[in-house]
Amino acid sequence: MSADLTFRQPIEDDHARVLAALGPWWGGLKGEAGAKERALLVPRLYFQHFTPTSRLAERPDGTLAAFLIGFVSQTDPDTAYIHFVGVDPQLHGQGIGRSLYEWFFGQARESGVRKVKCVTSPQNAASRAYHARLGFEVSEVLPDYDGPGLDRVAFTRSLAAERA
Ligand SMILES: CC(C)(COP(=O)(O)OP(=O)(O)OC[C@H]1O[C@@H](n2cnc3c(N)ncnc32)[C@H](O)[C@@H]1OP(=O)(O)O)[C@@H](O)C(=O)NCCC(=O)NCCS
């Protein structure tokens, strides 16, 4: 993995630049509607109230390299949820996404969590392949999961035992 990145807890001031990454980093997935959908999924509140279980990576010049937004379920203390993850496309394939997830798995385990969940759009083939490599089980397509026309696939990974 790229050794010159700094990983830290996000702060409220990071919100705007994470929003700015949601278009280019997703490669225009689902066009303008997709960009709006993603922006609405990342409101400021995540940078106010969810930061201890979230992570951000920067290059030495301070530019954003990657981020993860996650939390332990308020409903089920056995479950943690990764809401959003993104890695700068220039840095894909270097293990940065895996590193963010492994950090999150460690935090979750320390909180007594037993499984991690997340969802993605069925069209996001990279996300589906990535989560499969990280040991997640994937559901069928769940029609209208997040509202009319907002289909999702759901991922679940047990934290019970270490995996390759
Ligand atoms: C999905 C994403 C976070 C992966 O980040 P990354 O840093 O490139 O992933 P890593 O290098 O850590 O890869 C981890 C594993 O997943 C695999 N993987 C990653 N992207 C893949 C792809 N597009 N196709 C197939 N496998 C992939 C890698 O080969 C690697 O496997 P290995 O460790 O067993 O060799 C990144 O592609 C991204 O930001 N995409 C756009 C945003 C997005 O779709 N986010 C997820 C939905 S919210």
UniProtKB/TrEMBL annotation:
- Pfam families tied to this protein: Acetyltransf_1
Name assigned to this protein: GNAT family N-acetyltransferase
Query: What are the record keywords, sorted?
Result: Acyltransferase, Transferase
PROSITE patterns for this protein: GNAT
- The domain of life is Bacteria
Q: Which residues form the N-acetyltransferase domain?
A: 5-162
Which E.C. number(s) belong to this protein? 2.3.1.-
Q: Which Gene3D superfamilies match?
A: 3.40.630.30
> Per its record, what are the GO molecular function terms?
acyltransferase activity
